[in-house]
Amino acid sequence: MKIVAVTNCPAGIAHTYMVAEALERKAVSLGHTIKVETQGASGVENHLTPAEIKAADYVILALGRTISEDDYFRFSGKKVVEIKVSEALKQIETIFDDLDAKATTFGNDQAVKMGKQETPSGSVMSHLMAGVSAALPFVIGGGLLVAIANMLVQFGMPYTDMANGDPSFTWIVESIGYLGFKFMIPIMGAYIASSIGDKPAFAPAFLVTYLANDNTMLGTQSGAGFLGAVVLGLGVGYFVKYFRKVKLGKALQPLLGSMIIPFVTLFVFGILTYYVLGPLMGGMMDGMLHFLNTIPPSMKFGAAFLVGAMLAFDMGGPINKTAWFFCFALLDKGIYDWYAIVGVVALMPPMAAGISTFIAPRLFTKQEKGAAISSIIVGATVATEPAIPYALAAPLPMITANTISGGIAGVLTIMFGVERLAPGIGIFDPLIGLMSPWYWFYLALFIGLALNIFLIITLKSIWAKRKEAKLKDEERLTETTGDSI
């Protein structure tokens, strides 16, 4: 068969490309021809041409977020199989079975209807991750520039700000970098809103989220931070979603999305933000920051264990993303130690699983051993998802090992005072100045990995022995029943 596919996920980083690779590998093993278009954080790659779509027998859409109206029109008249991107890896062995029964033929009317959905399908978390995905380039680029400026100062270059004369090169680089941190929150709010209410929600959400973080204008000690992005992004998004259903007649209807909705939404939420939401959320953020800065060590270590365990538990799933979002959201407030937990724990499950296959190969299948090197390499760049196939094969021992070791690594990270400025390239973050102190980072990672590997081998050995004993008991029972008959 000739097949074309599209993959995307809320963050556009891991699942998008892992599912594409898995689809390609499985299709080739079955003798099919396939081309997969990825809609990731880097934009659309491996774009499907009209000729390729026309020649295809089936279209597979593995989606974590809504595709555009133009995408639906592209596949009009084709047999299309839709599946959640989070389920694709779990169903990869059977995904090509009986495609005809799974497929729906897209007609022109259906394409129009689906393409004009007012709200992207998905949970609140999918909308939040759409905002995070848009904010990532701001904080990554900004974090790298701040790190470079700090490295240049350490190498002896002068640092002079504008108040003391002509600004130095290092100050300029650092200031540009901090712009990324300044605008990541308004961008996050804008993309959360547009994920719900489409383009008319973007500008109002950006402006009111920026206002909520301007503590000088609001007269608060702190801006609303990520809390403002979440509350205002969701609020504006759903407000616009229902506003778009208003019917104004043929003369005024074209102005609804381009003029009326942005104006009314900005007016309503601008006033609400200035007088109510901004000061309220700024006060809440002040309280949270005060709590995090004054929390007793015992409570902080307990919270660090919980965050580390959540990050390792479902390997890129909703629990992982909740913990990740909490840590990531503190970056714009200059709190970097919690995000360092992400930088350590996210590496561990896939790397530990891959390394364990070399230490105890008898515990793993041929396919798991074949994927080990890829799991280690991809895992080393902070993509936890390569651990999923190992966890699906043996859920209880693998998830238990990952969760316990992730929690302990989270405690070690906080205990050692490791900080992470921004998302980066995983194990190499200390080399580009994003993670410090480098020696404590590598020590926390080494201890966490060693513990993870030890627990995987120990728990999976016990699990395998019990499974083997259960099979022998079943065989013995079968033989006894046969003799009785």
TrEMBL record:
The keyword Transport applies. The chain crosses the membrane at residues 124-149, 169-193, 224-243, 255-277, 338-359, 371-392, 399-418, 438-463. Residues 1-101 form the PTS EIIB type-2 domain. Residues 124-469 form the PTS EIIC type-2 domain. One of its GO terms (molecular function) is protein-phosphocysteine-sugar phosphotransferase activity. It is a multi-pass membrane protein. It holds the Pfam family PTS_IIB. It is found in: Cell inner membrane. CDD domains: PTS_IIB_fructose. GO terms for biological process: phosphoenolpyruvate-dependent sugar phosphotransferase system. Keywords: Cell membrane, Kinase, Membrane, Phosphoprotein, Phosphotransferase system, Sugar transport, Transferase, Transmembrane, Transmembrane helix, Transport. GO terms for cellular component: plasma membrane. PANTHER family: FRUCTOSE-LIKE PERMEASE, FRUCTOSE-LIKE PTS SYSTEM EIIBC COMPONENT-RELATED. This is PTS system fructose-specific IIBC component.
